[in-house]
Amino acid sequence: RKQCVKALLLWLGSQLASLLRLKVLSGSRTGKEGQVLHRSKRGWVWNQFFVIEEYTGPDPVLVGRLHSDVDAGDGNCKYILSGEGAGTIFVIDDKTGNIHATKTLDREEQAQYTLTAQAVDRATNKPLEPPSEFIVKVQDINDNPPEFLHGPYYARVPEMSNVGTSVMQVTATDADDPTYGNSARLVYSILQGQPYFSVEPQTGIIRTALPNMDREARQEYDVVIQAKDMGGHMGGLSGTTEVKITLTDVNDNPPKFPQSVYSMSVSEDKVSGEEVGRLKAKDPDLGENGLVSYRFIEGDGMTVFEITTDTDTREGVIKLRKPVDFETKRAYTLRVEASNTHVDPRFIAWGPYKDTATVKVMVEDADEPPAFLATSYSFEVEENAHDGTVVGRVHAKDTDVANNPVRYMIPRYTDVEQFFSVGPEDGIIKTTRPLDRETLPWHNISVSATEIGGHHQDTKVRVNIKVKDMNDNAPEFATQNEILVCENASPGKVISAVDKDEMAHRQYFHFSIAPEAVNNHNFSLKDNRDSTASIYVTRRGFSRMTQDVYFLPIEINDNGIPPMSSTNTLTIRVCSCDSKDTILSCNVEPYILPAGLSTGALIAILACIVILLAIVVLFVALRRQKKEPLIVFEEEDIRENIITYDDEGGGEEDTEAFDIATLQNPDGANGFLPRKDIKPELQYPMRPGGHPVANTVDVDDFIKTRINDADSDPTAPPYDSIQIYGYEGRGSIAGSLSSLESVTTDSDLDYDYLQSWGPRFKKLADLYAPPSS
C-alpha cells in the first residue's frame, strides 16, 4: 500500500514538473552599430517547486524544469543552478533545464531550499537573462510518531476521591507538519490502568474512573497512555508513556484493638512510675491520620494505674501511679479506649474513630521488708532516769503471707554514744545511762526491723526522744559583768538570773542577800518578783581611795521542784563620775601621800626589792645544788653526756631516792615554769596510790601512773610533751644497755673506790671491786 502511495505521488510530481517552466520573452537584437539594444523580459516564472520527503526510489526525483525563451533548442543556451543544496542535493541538466533531487530529503531537518537559476551562453558564459530565484519546498509525509518528552510521569491523588477527579495531564508532540494533512493531529487513549482511570482524548487529562479507591487495599497503579496521529485513524503512528499514580492517605480507618482482653501482671515491690505493660490499637492510616491516643474510661484501678502514649511506637503504656499491695488487692480490671487524634470531617459519618479493650492486671506477691505501724515515733523520758528505764516501744510486722518474725536493732551511727537499747524481739526502747537535758535535750535515733528468714530485708523508722526536764541546776547570774557605782552613790541597779532548767509557767527567781552579808551597811536588795532584783546603795557616798571594789553575795532560789538555790557573788566597783553621774574612770589612780610618794611608786619599789631577793635566793640554791639540767638541749652533744648527782641512789629500781617530777619538767627544778599562764583555782587531788613503795611496785606501773597524772594536771605546759624512761629493770624485753653485764670482759678500770661509797653501792662493789684480802 505504501509503495502505491509513493508511486502516485511521484507521478503527480512529474506532472507538476512538466508544467513548470520559465517563459522568457526576448526583445529583438541588432548587431549593427548604432542600434539600441533592448532588455530581455521574462514572460512568466514559477517561483516554487515541491518535492516529496523520504523518497527512496532508484532514480533521482524530478523536481521541475527551467526553460527560457532565448533557448532556441540549438544547444547554445546553458542553465546554471546555485543556492542551498545546489550541486549536492539538487542538480540541473544544463541543456534541458531539468532539476533532480539526488538525495532523500527530510522535512523535519529542513523544510525548504532557496535556489537561483540563470541561462547563459554556452560559449561565452555570458548571461542571456537575469538570474531567477525560486523555492523548493519539501512536502511532508507522516513519518514521525508522537513522542512524550517528559515521561515517565508520577502523580498522586487522595484515596476515596470522587469519580472524575483530575489526576494530571500528559502531552505528546509530533514532528510532522501540523498545517499539512492530519500527520500531527493527536488523539490520546489509555492502554493500561482501566477501569480505575480514564484519559480525555483531546487534552490528555487523566481522571479517576472508580469511586472509593482504598489506599490500604492498593496504593500504586501503573497507567499506560497512548498518543496517535492521523486523528487516531488507521495508518497513523503512535507513541506511549507510563504514568505511576499513587493514592495518598486520608483518615478513613478507625483504630482497632487486635484482641478484646489483655492480661498483665505487676509485682507489689514496684515503685510509682514503673511500666506494667503495653497494648496497641492498629490503624492502617499513615502520618497524623494514624495517630492514636489512649485513656482509661472505667475500672477499679483508675487511681492506681495511668496510661500514656508512646509517640514512636503508637502504643499505650500502662504505668503504676502508686504502689500496689498483694495482701490488700490482688487483681484490677481496666477499660481502655483508643481514638484518633485527627478526624477528617469528610469521613466523620464513617465513624466512630475509636475502639475499646479490657485490661486485667494481676498483682504478684514479693518478699517485702517489714513495715512499722507508724511512720515515726516520739517518746519522752525523765531527765536523770536510771539506766534501763523504758522509753517506749516500736512495732513492725512482716506484711507478706509468710508473716515471718521481726528482729529490732538500733544502727550505731544514729546513736553513737549508745544512750539507748532496743529489745530485739519486742521493740522496747530503754535507756542505758542517765540522761542530761541540759547537755542534749533531744535524741533522734533510728530503729531497724529485719525480717528473720526470707531475704532478710529490713526497714528503718525515725524515733524522736525528748528528755523531760528535772530541776537539777541551781540558778545563777545571767551575766557576770561588774556593777559600776559612782562615788557620789547613784541609786539602784537591776540584776537578773538564768537557770539551765526549763522554767515552769509562772515560775520566777527569788533574790536575797546571803545571810553572811545581811548586816552590811553599804547595799540593800529588792526582789522585783519578775526574775530580776534591784541593788540599792544604803550609804551616802564611797571613797575609791578607801575601797574601790565591793563583793556582795546574793542567794538565788528558783522555786522549782525540788527547789534549787545558789549563792553568787556580785562585784560592785566604785568609779569616778562627773556632776551628771557619767562614769569617767574606774581604774586605780595614784594618790599623793604626805611623804611625797604615791602608792603606785611604793608598790613598784617593793616589787623590785622582792625580785632582787628572789634572784639572790635562786642563785644561792643553784650553787649549793650544783645539778646539771636533765633535759638535753639541741646544742649539746648527746653522745658524751654525763649527769652528776651529789647524792647516792639505791640503784635503777629505787624510785624514792630522787624526785621523778624533775624528769617531767626539768625547767621547774630551776625555778622556771615555761608557759604557765594561769594557775587553776581548783587543785585536783592525787590519784589513790600515786607514790609507789620502793621495791614493791614495778617501774612500768609507776610510769603509767605518772603519765595519767600528767595528762590530768592543769598546771602542765599547754603543749604535748613526750616523757621517755629508759627502764632497764626486771623483765625488760629490750635488754640492758648497762655496763654491768661486762664483768666477764677484760678491763683496766679500777673499781676499788666503790667499797667506800656506802651500803647503797654495795651491790656494785660486789660485782666490780675485787674482794678485799
Q: What does this entry look like structurally?
A:
The protein is built from 6 helices and 41 strands. The chain is mainly β. The N terminus is likely disordered. Strands 34, 36, 39, 40 and 41 form a 5-stranded mixed beta sheet that branches. The termini are far apart. A hairpin with a 5-residue loop joins strand 6 and strand 7. It is about 10% helix and about 30% strand.
Secondary structure layout plus pairing:
Blueprint: H1 2-19, E1 23-25, E2 41-44, E3 48-52, E4 61-65, E5 77-83, E6 90-92, E7 98-101, E8 112-121, E9 132-139, E10 153-158, E11 166-169, E12 187-192, E13 197-199, E14 205-208, E15 220-228, E16 238-248, E17 261-267, E18 275-279, E19 292-299, E20 305-310, E21 315-320, E22 331-340, E23 354-364, E24 371-372, E25 376-382, E26 390-393, E27 396-397, E28 406-409, E29 420-422, E30 428-431, E31 442-451, E32 458-468, E33 476-477, E34 483-486, E35 493-498, E36 510-513, E37 523-527, E38 532-537, E39 549-557, E40 565-577, E41 583-585, H2 599-625, H3 661-664, H4 666-669, H5 699-712, H6 762-768
Parallel strand pairs: 3-9, 10-16, 17-23, 25-32, 34-40
Antiparallel strand pairs: 1-2, 4-7, 5-8, 6-7, 8-9, 11-14, 12-15, 13-14, 15-16, 18-21, 19-22, 20-21, 22-23, 24-27, 26-30, 28-31, 29-30, 31-32, 33-35, 35-38, 36-39, 37-38, 39-40, 40-41
Signal peptide: 1-19
InterPro entries: Cadherin, Cadherin-like_dom, Cadherin-like_sf, Cadherin_CS, Cadherin_Y-type_LIR, Catenin-bd_sf
Membrane topology: Single-pass type I membrane protein
